C-alpha cells in the first residue's frame, strides 16, 4: 500500500507523489468516494503543457462530471491509459493503479500543498 503520509495533496482533492522532477498525480480516495462509480476519464495527451490551476481533464461518474485540475506547471510525460480503458480503477485503486498523469515539473512546487493531516482536516 502507498504511504499516504509521503504524498502531498491539493484542496481540489488530488494527490501528488514527487520523484525528482516527475510528479505522479491522481485523485484521492475521498474524491473517488464522493464521485461515485467513475465511468469515463479524459486526460491530456503526452507532451502537453499544463499550468497549475488550469483544467486538464475530466472525470465522469454515475453521479456527476468533475474537472481535473493540473496541480503543477510542467509537461505531461505519461498518461495512465489503463484508467482511460477501465475508469473503475480510479475507485478501486486511487493511490495505486488509479493514478492519472505524470508531469515533468517546471519550477518550484506550489506552497499551498497539504500534508496528509491537513488534507484530512480539510475533508473532515
TrEMBL record:
Domain Lipoyl-binding: 22-104
UniProt keyword terms in alphabetical order: Lipoyl
Top-rank taxon: Bacteria
Cofactor stoichiometry and binding remark: Binds 1 lipoyl cofactor covalently.
Keyword Plastid: no
Listed cofactors: (R)-lipoate
One GO process term, biological-process aspect: protein lipoylation
Bilayer-crossing regions: none
The keyword Kinase is annotated on this UniProt entry: no
Annotated GO CC locations: cytosol; glycine cleavage complex
UniProt function note: The glycine cleavage system catalyzes the degradation of glycine. The H protein shuttles the methylamine group of glycine from the P protein to the T protein.
Quaternary structure annotation from Swiss-Prot or TrEMBL: The glycine cleavage system is composed of four proteins: P, T, L and H.
Name of the protein in question: Glycine cleavage system H protein
Native source organism of the sequence: Microbacterium enclense
Amino acid at each position: 500500500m502507498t504511504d499516504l503520509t509521503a504524498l502531498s495533496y491539493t484542496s481540489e482533492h488530488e494527490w501528488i507523489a514527487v520523484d525528482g522532477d516527475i510528479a505522479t498525480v491522481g485523485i484521492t480516495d475521498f474524491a473517488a468516494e464522493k464521485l461515485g462509480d467513475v465511468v469515463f476519464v479524459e486526460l491530456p495527451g503526452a507532451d502537453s503543457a499544463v499550468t497549475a490551476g488550469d483544467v486538464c481533464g475530466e472525470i465522469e461518474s454515475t453521479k456527476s462530471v468533475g474537472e481535473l485540475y493540473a496541480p503543477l506547471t510542467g509537461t505531461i510525460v505519461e498518461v495512465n491509459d489503463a484508467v482511460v480503458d477501465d475508469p473503475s480503477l480510479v475507485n478501486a485503486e486511487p493511490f495505486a493503479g488509479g493514478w492519472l498523469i505524470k508531469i515533468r515539473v517546471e519550477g518550484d512546487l506550489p506552497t499551498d500543498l497539504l500534508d496528509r493531516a491537513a488534507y484530512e482536516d480539510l475533508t473532515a
